[in-house]
Amino acid sequence: MNKVELIARISSKYDLDEKRVRVLADVIFDEMAKALLDRESIEIPELGDFWIKTRPEKLSENRRGQVITIREKHAVRFKPVIQLRKALNPKSNFIAKR
């Protein structure tokens, strides 16, 4: 589902004006992006947690065997709440070794 589909679904389900739902969605997503850019975590109890993970600078080798420096990187991470994880995986994928 993309943003347009999400807005249409909410608008239809709750009989709301699509333009107002779009404005509200824009505000919510903008605030979430600002929080992440400020390195704040976002906790949504029904969904999960978003946070920024920093990968430190490191040395590596390129294809020619030359040592290169890979710069520090930042990535958004997401961990769903346990109820969502259980709903996605109703039976454990764990197989006991005999």
From TrEMBL:
Going by the UniProt record, its keywords in alphabetical order are:
DNA condensation, DNA-binding, Plasmid
- Gene3D superfamilies to which the protein is assigned, alphabetical: IHF-like DNA-binding proteins
Query: What would be an example GO MF term here?
Result: structural constituent of chromatin
One cellular-component annotation, GO: cytosol
Cross-referenced InterPro entries: Hist_DNA-bd (IPR000119), IHF-like_DNA-bd_dom_sf (IPR010992)
Q: Fetch the SUPFAM superfamilies from UniProt.
A: IHF-like DNA-binding proteins
Query: What is one GO biological process annotated to this record?
Result: chromosome condensation
User: TM segments?
Assistant: none
SMART domains in UniProt: BHL
Q: Which family does it belong to?
A: Belongs to the bacterial histone-like protein family.
**What functional role does this protein have?**
Histone-like DNA-binding protein which is capable of wrapping DNA to stabilize it, and thus to prevent its denaturation under extreme environmental conditions.
Q: What is this protein called?
A: Histone-like DNA-binding protein
Species annotation: Vibrio sp. 23023
Taxonomic placement: Bacteria, Pseudomonadati, Pseudomonadota, Gammaproteobacteria, Vibrionales
